[in-house]
Amino acid sequence: MDEQEREKLFVKNYQDNQAFIDKLTLTVAVGSMPLSIGFINNITDWNCWLNFLFVFVNACACVIIIAHILGACYGKKSCDVALLKNDDKAIRYNCVQRGFNITVNIFFCIMVANYLAIICLLVYGGK
Fold first, then answer.
1. Are 74 and 99 in contact (CB under 8 A)?
2. What is the pTM of this model?
3. What is the C-alpha end-to-end distance of the chain, expressed in Å?
4. pLDDT of residue 127
5. Cα(110)–Cα(97) distance, rounded to whole angstroms?
6. Distance between CA atoms of 60 and 36, rounded to whole angstroms?
7. From the CB of residue 109, how many other CB atoms can be counted at a distance below 10 Å?
8. Where are the alpha helices (DSSP H) in the chain?
9. DSSP character at residue 79
10. From CA 51, how far away is CA 124, in angstroms rounded?
11. Quick one: 108 exposed, middle or buried, by C-beta within 10 A (0-12, 13-18, 19+)?
12. Under a CB-based contact definition with an 8 Å cutoff, are residues 71 and 55 in contact?
């Protein structure tokens, strides 16, 4: 395997992994909203801390969805500008897209951790 084939393989693996991560984070964030709506009747029985955590987790899901959309828009802009051979703008747009991807990853981790905290608090006496 020569260097060019190896590089193509790495790029393909990177694209596959990024596509999986994008699908996972977006699916979980969008899927958590309807599940959370199903619990709204139950949160009146919870204490104030769990209510705050519940709202915070849903806010994280909203941030994930918005950051995904904005990241996709800037990724498209980056590709469009790169095809026009304007490398400075393409690099700028790519940096913005990378920032949104980092935001998605951070808020996804926060969201999952807080969902686990809610589950633990409910199981071990969160009322």
1. no
2. 0.78
3. 61
4. 54
5. 20
6. 12
7. 12
8. 3-38, 48-83, 87-123
9. H
10. 16
11. buried
12. no
> Is 81 within 8 Å of 89 (Cβ atoms)?
yes
Contact criterion met (CB below 8 Å) for 12 and 91:
no
Rounded CA separation 36/53 (Å): 12
pLDDT tens column, 22-47: 788 888 888 887 777 777 766 767 77
Tokens of 93: 């747009």
CA 111 → CA 28, 74, 80, distances in Å? 10, 24, 33
Alpha-carbon distances of 63 from 18, 41, 91, 108, rounded to whole Å: 19, 24, 24, 9
Tokens for 118? 């809610």
Residue 68 tokens read as: 């995904």
